[in-house]
Amino acid sequence: MSALKDYSFKEDEDGELPRLVTGDEADLESILKQYQPDGGKQIVSDKKINRANMQWKQYYDKQQRIPVTIITGYLGAGKSTLLEQIALKGSDKRLAVILNEFGDSSEIEKSISIKNNGEAYEEWLDLGNGCLCCSLKDVGVKAIEDMVARSPGKIDYILLETSGIADPAPIAKMFWQDKGLNSNVYIDGIIAVLDSEHIVSCLDDVSPASHWHGEKVTLDGDEESNTTIAHLQIAMADAILVNKSDKIEGNEAKRQKLEQVVRSINSAAPLYYTKYGDIDLDRILDLHAFESTKLLEARTETTFHDPRISTITLTFPFFTTREQFDSFIENFLQVLLWKNFGVEHPLTTQGEDFEVHRTKGLIVVSGEYKVIQGVRDTYDIIPGERVPNVKENKIVLIGKHLDETHIRKLLDSALIKEDN
């Protein structure tokens, strides 16, 4: 809610304010003197506006904004086991769990279980063909918004299990909406569940005959690549659960190889080992991954490099002027994410075609902290909080065929140096 429009009152030729004629004439001059310390330029005082803004914010945040955590991972990784553990352990939150019919829980249909102090509510939610990333994705969001609106006071948090064969990026983008749209849900984070015993071989096996992660992936009209759905699920994750960890206990070589492979794809997300999906909920809920700076703790040192999807971390000096920031956005970020608007550019004509799946950044402009969040070609810049011990700007890119040399050159060309 913004400040009310500034109205000015013009005195007539006699130096008196015009009078309203309503039967009982109001003494506007005395009213203005009594209630408007600015001489009649602002209808409502700043104090009242600030109080109203605070009351609205408290109502809006508490009553309308329900966080959504997306649970992704291939068939058999343990997504439903994780959700069952969460339901069994209980929480101080009233959780709504949306189960996808093509996931591990196909026998549960498309039900939503809402638990509150052990009491279960159930409501049927039709998500079209059961896949939120299909052509009916917008209808899916509306259905969930309607479900929240019809269940006031029953839901604090939503867990959404996606199809094991789903690319999580379109699902994340449809929930990632501007607050100005008054949506009653927002994305909190993406959790990827991996099968510790098979994930490495799944990532390596992209043959058409593969029965797990061998699907060819096509993005934005590009030709098919050897990138698998598993790569995309890991790349998009804000936290990674290596489930069935008991299957590799005692095999340190396999454990190290697993970590190297996963970290080469996404080094920004924390990695946790779990058995039967058992994990502290604080590690996967309320991450605020699309509005915080936690995600900047990327580790890029690894002895294994997957040439298909990797993480790149770039650092550069704080900006001291708005002009420097604008140049960074227009000449680096937009060129990178939008591939130079389709115009030929050295970056877009390099070797194999590249794709940025996730962008995360902390930028300081004249002492003001800004957080950059991006999914594919969509990005947002939001105000950030001061972070201790941060001495330079940082941006983390997770994507396919990212050439760090070319990207660094693009960044350098976009940075306006300070005059000495």
**Roughly what percent helix?**
25-40%
Radius of gyration: 26 Å
Tally the helices: 10
The CATH superfamily of the largest domain bears the name P-loop containing nucleotide triphosphate hydrolases
Classify the secondary structure makeup into a structural class. alpha/beta
What is the annotated CATH architecture of the largest domain?
3-Layer(aba) Sandwich
- The arrangement of helices and strands along the chain is HHEHEEEHEHEHHEHEEHEEEEH
- Find the count of extended strands (DSSP E, 2+ residues): 13
Keywords: Chaperone, GTP-binding, Hydrolase, Nucleotide-binding, Zinc
GO molecular function, one term: hydrolase activity
Catalytic activity: GTP + H2O = GDP + phosphate + H(+)
Pfam families: cobW, CobW_C
Keywords:
alpha/beta; 2 domains; five-stranded antiparallel beta sheet; 10 helices
Structural features, described:
This protein has an 8-stranded mixed beta sheet with strand order 4-3-2-5-1-6-7-8, with helices on both faces. Strands 9-13-10-11-12 form a 5-stranded antiparallel beta sheet, sandwiched between helices. The chain is an alpha/beta fold and 420 residues long. It contains 10 helices and 13 strands. The chain is 27% helix and 21% strand. Helix 9 runs antiparallel to helix 10. It has 2 domains: 221 residues, 3-Layer(aba) Sandwich (Rossmann fold), CATH 3.40.50.300; 107 residues, CobW-like, C-terminal domain (Hypothetical Protein Yjia, Chain: A,domain 2, 2-Layer Sandwich), CATH 3.30.1220.
